[in-house]
């Protein structure tokens, strides 16, 4: 009885350990995205710029600091005595510059719109970072599956090599067959080296994005079950303007340019400076040194209208450029969505074609040709061709799956809409 329990526990542990890599792989993409959003230095720098812009709002639209000055006024140069002339005294003066009405409000609105722009840039950078992580992960998934296919084919080529050598030794095959299989095996080994190098590069880049150690291991799933793209192209195009953060950010930038133009026009109006002073006089003066108080107002004179006209023209050009940049951005978004949608649709159709037709047929063809070759009813070139065809499509089915998911990731980033096309992972039983 006790032995039976131990065996049951061991089998359960073995099952859990066998399933553990799959569970790790299933969560790897989510973990990478979480680490990237939490620790990517470039994203954090973008957040810092957003915070900087928000803090700048409080510093804008406020009056300049008042100016406090002290002066020793009207001292005679022959004696520098304070009690010989009635205008001699020690003066304290306070002045405050006040911009013409509307300038401070425009300055504050410019700062607010700039903060909105930086906030949109930050959210846009989050979307872009998620896209980069997803695309990199799905590229890595394809490379891992290609590596697995090559390793499986190397084993097949080993079997073919032994088979070709055996038939050659008994006079039923040719040395050319042996050399061909050796050549193809060498090509597969060369391909494996290149794929492993590419995997190292992709893994390192993903770790860079996630702010992990560059050589940290990343595990991809053995297979990804993909579903169809159920979103309509027109729906994604329309949703982009309300969900993509950069659309609102561009509106904020346009408003900022409008306020800058308004501020440039307000520069035609003079600013004023209010001031007040108090002069302390010597008590020994004939009038007993009665103190003086003064107050006044001064204006700058905006005579240089050509300078101000140039500022207005520059602001108008900046506003026009902003409108055109926004139009270009909208066109680029429309193109990216259309292009990614087309790529997703094409690769999903190819994946369905490969999984339901070409790959099973290629496997059957290889198995049939191998059996025929073993009994002498098929030649070696036909067998080799069937294996290479199988190799091509077993690799291709994972490539188009990865390309489909990469296109969906681009669609998500371009439209701002979350698109679920990956079948949920089955949870492990307790």
Report what the structure shows.
With 430 residues, this protein is α+β, with helices and mostly antiparallel strands. The chain folds into two domains: 24-63 and 99-267 and 302-415, Outer membrane efflux proteins (OEP) (Up-down Bundle), CATH 1.20.1600; 64-98 and 269-301. It has eight helices and four strands; from the N terminus they run ααββααααββαα. A four-stranded antiparallel β-sheet has the order 1-2-3-4, with no helix packed on it. Helix 1 (2-39) packs across helix 3 (103-169) and helix 2 packs antiparallel against helix 3.
The amount of helix comes to: 55-70%
How far the N terminus sits from the C terminus, by CA atoms, comes to 22 Å
Q: Strand-and-helix sequence, N→C?
A: HHEEHHHHEEHH
What CATH architecture of the largest domain do you see? Up-down Bundle
Number of domains: 2
Structural class comes to: alpha+beta
Q: What gyration radius follows from the Cα positions, in whole Å?
A: 38 Å
- Please name the fourth-level CATH homologous superfamily of the largest domain: Outer membrane efflux proteins (OEP)
Beta-sheet strand percentage? 5-15%
